[in-house]
Amino acid sequence: MPSSDEIFEKVQETLVDALGVNDDEVTPTATLMGDLGAESIDFLDIVFRLEKCFDIKIPRGELFPENLASADSGFVVAGKVTPEGLEELRRRMPHADIDSFADDPTVSRIWDLFTVGMICRFIEARVK
Amino acid sequence: MRWYWIDRFIEFESGKLARAVKNVSLAEEHLHDHFPGFPVMPGSLMIEGMAQTGGILLGEHFKFAYNVILAKVPKVTFHSWACPGDQIVYTARLMDAREEGGSATVEATVGDRAVASAEIVFAHLKSDDPQFSRIDQKNFVFRMNLLDILTVGKAGDGRQPGSNGPDSGQGE
């Protein structure tokens, strides 16, 4: 079983290849969209690469859930994710740091949940 | 002009590999500007040919249930030129194929010479997807009319028109 450091190194390599960024930019707290410039289509590419790299299957929507807090989800009021919405996020994204997000659940910040560290935690749970 | 950047499939192994040819001709107008006095096949159009080869391979795998869109080219390398008179062979290998999309690696060669190699990621879009109308149609790897290429190439067994075979009209 790979160690946390080994997982991070492989995730880092994956993101360098998928996003064309430098390895020193890929830190555990870096956000995929904000810091690393990922677009939605990159998520599919990242999933393909992680599956190959770690020899695992990542079903659709598990690592990067779709339609998070969309306008018709019922989980957004006045631009903020509701407490019910936060529970839904915890359920669908146990690998994400929902606690920090809950301090200021502005809906646009939801993309900041997608961090390098989030991917590492997801992979760790999978390979164990 | 029709947006066909491959001429014919010469090999098609469902779900695995497709091989298509593109004959580069000096009759193609863009070669006169690219470049004056030095006509070479533009790299962008080779990417399109590689995406059509790989995209149809992916589309066929799902019986054309999805619209296949060229989403991303994570990596492409150009090794040499392709000039008028060259026949480019695009060899696509399907690497991933799932509900959301797929990916392929494609090599472009002229004879034994490597011309380009690429990794291509495709996304699937259903016709009833709310985003469907917002996508520029140029991003579609194929619409159904492009499938004519499959019939021309006698896809499935790679036989070429004129070769010996039950469909060639020249057999016994």
Describe this structure in words.
The complex is a heterodimer of chains A (128) and B (172). Chain A is mostly helical and 128 residues long. Chain A has one domain: Non-ribosomal Peptide Synthetase Peptidyl Carrier Protein, Chain A (Orthogonal Bundle). Chain A has helices at 4-19, 40-54, 83-92, 98-103, 116-127; strands spanning 76-77, 80-81. Chain A has a two-stranded antiparallel ribbon. In chain A, a hairpin with a 2-residue loop joins strand 1 (76-77) and strand 2. In chain A, helix 1 crosses helix 2 (40-54). Chain A is globular, with a radius of gyration of 15 Å. The model of chain A has no long low-confidence stretch (mean pLDDT 92). Chain B is of the alpha+beta class and 172 residues long. Chain B has a single domain (8-150), classed as Thiol Ester Dehydrase, Chain A. Chain B is 16% helix and 35% strand. Chain B is built from three helices and six strands. Chain B has helices at residues 30-33, 43-61, 148-152, and strands spanning 8-13, 17-23, 67-78, 87-98, 101-110, 113-125. A six-stranded antiparallel beta sheet of chain B has the order 1-2-4-5-6-3. The longest helix of chain B is centred in the N-terminal third of the chain and has 19 residues, at 43-61. Chain B is globular, with a radius of gyration of 16 Å. Chain B starts with 7 loop residues before the first strand and ends in a 20-residue tail after the last helix. Residues 161-172 of chain B have low confidence and may be disordered. At the A-B interface, helix 2 of A face strand 3 and strand 4 of B.
